[in-house]
Amino acid sequence: MSRQETTGRQKPATGWTLRAGNALLNLRIWNSPWAHWAALIMAGLLFLLLISVPLEATEQAIFALICFVVTLLLSRVAGRLATLMMIMLSVGVSLRYMYWRVTSTLGFETPLDMLFGYGLVIAEFYALTVLLLSYFQSAWPLRRRPLPMPADTRNWPTVDVFIPTYSEPLEVVRQTVLAAMSLDWPANKVKVYLLDDGRRPEFREFCERVGVGYITRPDNKHAKAGNINAALSKTDGEFVAVFDCDHVPTRSFLQISMGWFLKDPKLSMLQTPHVFFSPDPFEKNLETFRNVPNEGELFYGLIQDGNDLWNATFFCGSCAVMRRSAIAEIGGIATESVTEDALTALKMNRAGYNTAYLAVPQAAGLATENLSRHIGQRIRWARGMAQIIRLNNPLLGRGLKLGQRLCYLSATLHFFHGLPRVVFLTAPLAYLFFGAHVFQASALLIALYALPHLVHASVTNSRIQGRFRHSFWNEVYESVLAWYIMRPALQTLIQPYRARFNVTAKGGVIPEAYFDWTLARPYLVLLVLNLLGMTVGVLMLVLAPGDTDHTLTVAVNLAWTAYNIVITAASVAVAGEVRQLRSTPRVSADLAATVHLANGRTLACRTTDFSQGGVGLTLPGNAQIPLGEALHISLYRDEEEGVFPGQVTFSKPGHLGVGFRDLSIQQELDLARVTFARADTWANMWGQNTPDSPLMALRHVCRIGMRGLSLITLETFSGARRAVRGAATRTASAATRTARAATRLGSAKR
């Protein structure tokens, strides 16, 4: 992976910028220790002046314009120095805004002004804290690279591979088990275990058939953490690799991951990215799969790399390797939180162990199929992080360095975004509905201070995060989750022992498209409120225009409300569930293949995709094979060939769909080796999204918002038609029953 964090829009750092930077760094004065302190003190004083010097409106406008021009120029220069300068400008402008906000805008005149005003400023403090922590985490990602293993495999350590499962179907679990059996590691030094907390006979039978270990226990105490701890007591490998039962590892996983453990005896855990070969509800329902980075890509693409610089990589529960002795020293996998993985990493860091992150995708899994499951998973994460900050606060206690404390603090604070996000989505309504002034300042000054803060944050984050998070999508992701994680996070903060572990179901289907009215209700309420606010604001401008300051105040609130309408409408669009009939998603892949027909003829071809149940092929020319014909398919990995029986399920000139039929266990193992377990299977889909452009991203989110408005309009009218038809049917049925009763009564009288 490239060590350059640019988005592809910057120009190389050449010419005067490079010469000036080198000349400055090579001055002899830096050989003196006092020079560093003097420079630091001077920079601090200048920064304080930047933040606190009061300016008139015209002067503030000039200052904001200069900062913006400098940022635009820096955004076209490659390299980390330019990135750091953009971050410092953004931090300075944001702190200047907050200083002005606190010292000049909080003189509220009425209790209503005070209620809404202080609520907003607290939300802004939260947002600023999260922004500063995110800069700290992502300013200098480590970009760790794999280390080679020794040539003599006798020096390689022993590894136990754990695959915990509880209620997932065997169809989901078997592919992970088969891929784990394909790991490139000496056979006498690796053992695969299925940890079945469901205690299911068919799972035991499957493990016996394929030859992997099967471990269960009499109860489900402490959920996944307890399951792993029980297995640790029954195994003895020097290292433990953990995969969720739907995360399919590549054959190279251990060879890529284990080198760092041999180099660093204090390394306790190495995490690799979580990649998904099926779309999550956002990607599926909004049709953005592989076009817009999903919700988790920012964390695994950038944040974890930044954490790694500070020796604060989080264990994420899967796709990771841990040193058994380190786990034993901290008392096993942590059980005090429903996010046992993050707490385990925190305990390892407190104990003086190192943790590491390797941004090389070596496994992929199933994303949550629908929005309900997705929200349920995030609720558990929010509860777990609230437990950590309440019971194991990273800012307190011994064993952590400052950088580690800040990284863990950022992770825990992130899941408290629910209440601040709701505040931001409703703040302009305080003025439009109630005439409350949340800012005790003119609209012009608000724009001159707030807009630079917002614009610099957007431009700087676009540069830093561009490959892994597009502009404005963070608001969409957070708004969808805000209402649902707000209460659990705050409740767990007060009552940390009440949180319970819930398993995220995987591998389901959605037989029919539908709109989830229940989940969409909070977004619909917020959308309707903002639409009403927009209507009120327009009427205020038309019917009671007032003076210039009043007009500008209404205009600022209308602009804010319009943005909130876009975000809430986009959130509504996510609730429109798209039909999903495949329980085994396809993985796009261009691989060499051969079709063997029953008459002895063979066709060399290429795959378009594969799944656990079949493969898509492109045939040479316009060749076509009849539907339903039995055949065999050869797939290849290096010099290895796997031959699989199948039947044609789709056929048109030049294209073929084949479903596998009656595969033996050995053939299933061979299929895993030449498809899911290939070393390059997931690396090709990592970080390949279109680079971010804030204006293009804004247009895209606006289109998604329009889609949400259209969807809710269509669903409302469809529901009304169904209600009318239902009422008409019930009326007709009642009339029929009345007529029949009258007929029977007449017959009785006769």
From TrEMBL:
Names of required cofactors: Mg(2+)
GO CC, one annotated term: plasma membrane
Domain PilZ stretches: 580-676
Protein name: Cellulose synthase catalytic subunit [UDP-forming]
InterPro entries in the record: Cell_synth_A, Glyco_trans_2-like, Glycosyltr_2/OpgH_subfam, Nucleotide-diphossugar_trans, PilZ_domain
Organism: plant metagenome
Catalytic activity annotation: [(1->4)-beta-D-glucosyl](n) + UDP-alpha-D-glucose = [(1->4)-beta-D-glucosyl](n+1) + UDP + H(+)
SUPFAM superfamilies reported for this sequence: Nucleotide-diphospho-sugar transferases, PilZ domain-like
Entry keywords, A to Z: c-di-GMP, Cell inner membrane, Cell membrane, Cellulose biosynthesis, Glycosyltransferase, Membrane, Transferase, Transmembrane, Transmembrane helix
Keyword hit for Cytoplasm: no
Pathway(s) served: Glycan metabolism; bacterial cellulose biosynthesis
PANTHER family given in the database record: CELLULOSE SYNTHASE CATALYTIC SUBUNIT A [UDP-FORMING]
Membrane topology: Multi-pass membrane protein
GO terms (BP aspect): cellulose biosynthetic process; UDP-alpha-D-glucose metabolic process
Annotated region (Disordered), positions in chain: 730-750
Location, primary (coarse class): membrane
Compartments where located: Cell inner membrane
GO MF assignments: cellulose synthase (UDP-forming) activity; cyclic-di-GMP binding
EC number: 2.4.1.12
Enzyme class: transferase
Any Pfam family: Glycos_transf_2
